[in-house]
Specification:
single chain; Gyrase A, domain 2; binds guanosine-5'-triphosphate; 3 domains; binds magnesium ion; Rossmann fold; six-stranded mixed sheet; alpha/beta; 12 strands; Four Helix Bundle (Hemerythrin (Met), subunit A)
Length: 460
């Protein structure tokens, strides 16, 4: 970090294709000089943040367009360097020729995300804010966009920084105590220490919930629709989508392959995955379909085990339900065909006697009864206690660092409770703090930066 950035980069910041305007962006120490090189000869750059009209020349010096030019003087710019933007007319060619002119004059074509990387290297934004810029670009729902905007405005960094500082204070106090025990400074009783660690653990839990919700808003919830053949998995998929997407027949074994479609519920994308019914396969095609079903069961965030409430529960159903409960991952037992007027063979009470903790609900894919409640259950299972409007946009990397920090602090809490020793506690607090520092980008190497910024588009 903090490496000298000496060259001047240029790129088209707007999307390719016909549009009203296109923006060509330049950043670096020679930004003003290079902009002047492609602008009308004799044009002088406007004061910072003011626009001026100029003609623009290509690499051969030919006038190709009229553009508005604006400059931002270092350090008050997106990247923290001198920045110039040329707003040419839209359509890709004028912007492309203008860019070529800049490259010919000595600019270098920016790599994906390089403007934002410079903003980070120059301390304009931290790593979590940089990643939220990507979140804003990739947002597909209003809620996801709001979560990204909250992170960009610094909510995540402020929260993480304050937890990190508390960890640091606690750790250094404990270290003083370890290094100078003869000073007789038991500055904290075990109870006091425990209550500080518990408070920190609760804050990190809150953070992890908010981050999980943010990730859900962006990535969506993967929901596997599984069960024996003919229970109505494909019918449920169609009902949730409100369209006849999957083939439905009265013949068991209709669905052979995995079918994936997305619906949005309260701004959260739900990726619904219809699968082949689980049974002893009748042929090779069905066998591969079943293998895919099992893979989906492992992969999904929420697994629905669907039953036909008019059919008796067989031993396979029982063992699948117990298995799902045992794995303790998000699952719901769905009793379908509640519209049938005949005797109900499987009841919610019946399932509860098998697996008391499993959420169970009755619905009808045919009439639509219970579908809203199903979506609500899926969402609350996946989002835990995190409120949707408090979600913070994070990447999988940031969420994993938050969870590592939470795991370390939870262990530290146990270590204090079990009086394992203050050196162990101190080590665990340090581990938690290091995770938060990686999240903030205070500890990161070039490989990490490259992997983060290469996911951006050129020009951002
Ligand atoms: N009455 C009633 N019938 C339903 C309902 N849901 C599905 N069915 C019927 O049950 C049969 C099987 O439906 P599918 O949706 O194909 O079942 P599936 O679980 O996808 O079956 P496979 O793909 O063979 O594993 C069809 O005849 C549907 O019309 C429901 O809620 N009520
Ligand atoms: Mg089917």
């Amino acid at each position: 970090m903090g490496q000298a950035v000496s060259d001047t980069i240029a790129a088209i910041a707007t999307a390719w294709g016909e549009a009203g305007i296109a923006v060509v962006r330049l950043s670096g120490p020679r930004a003003m000089e290079l902009a002047e090189a492609v602008a009308r000869s004799g044009v002088s750059l406007p004061p910072p943040r003011f626009m001026c009209l100029t003609s623009v020349r290509d690499g051969d010096g030919q006038i190709i367009d009229q553009a508005l030019m604006v400059r931002f003087a270092a350090p008050k710019s997106y990247t923290g360097e001198d920045v110039v933007e040329l707003h040419t007319h839209g359509g890709s060619l004028a912007a492309q020729l203008c860019l070529e002119g800049l490259l010919r004059a000595g600019a270098r074509l920016a790599e994906p995300g390089e403007f934002t990387k410079r903003a980070f290297l120059n301390g304009r934004i931290d790593l979590s804010q940089s990643e939220s810029v990507l979140g804003i670009i990739h947002s597909r729902s209003k809620e996801a966009l709001r979560a990204a905007a909250r992170t960009l405005s610094g909510e995540l960094s402020v929260f993480v920084t304050s937890v990190r500082e508390e960890l640091l204070a606690l750790q250094s106090a404990l270290e003083v105590d370890l290094d100078f025990p003869e000073e007789g400074l038991p500055y904290r009783s075990e109870e006091e220490l425990l209550s500080s660690i518990t408070a920190l653990r609760q804050r990190l839990e809150d953070l992890a919930d908010r981050c999980s919700v943010g990730l859900l808003l962006r990535e969506g919830i993967r929901v596997a629709l599984t069960g024996r053949p003919n229970v109505g998995k494909s019918s449920l998929l169609n009902a949730l989508l409100k369209q006849a997407r999957a083939i439905v027949t009265a013949l068991p074994g209709t669905t052979r392959d995995v079918i994936e479609e997305t619906v949005t519920y309260q701004g959260v994308p739900m990726r619904l995955v219809d699968t082949a019914g689980l049974r002893q396969p009748a042929d090779e095609i069905e066998a591969s379909g079943i293998e895919r079903t099992l893979a989906e069961l492992r992969r999904a965030d929420v697994r629905l085990w669907i039953l036909d409430s008019s059919e008796p529960l067989d031993s396979e159903d029982q063992s699948h339900i117990q298995q799902l409960a045992l794995e303790d991952r998000g699952h719901i037992i769905v009793l379908n065909k509640s519209d049938l007027s005949g005797p109900v063979t499987v009841t919610e009470a019946h399932i509860r006697s098998l697996s008391p903790e499993s959420p169970v609900l009755s619905l009808s894919a045919k009439t639509g009864e219970g579908l809203e409640f199903l979506k609500e259950c899926i969402l609350s299972l996946a989002s835990g206690s995190g409120a949707l409007d408090a979600g913070l946009n994070v990447t999988a990397r940031q969420l994993s660092e938050t969870r590592l920090a939470l795991a370390a602090i939870t262990e530290a809490e146990t270590a204090v409770m079990e009086r394992i020793g203050r050196d162990v506690t101190t080590g665990l607090l340090a581990e938690a703090r290091e995770s938060l520092e990686r999240l903030l980008g205070l500890r990161c190497d070039d490989a990490l930066l490259d992997s983060i910024f290469s996911r951006f588009c050129v020009g951002k």
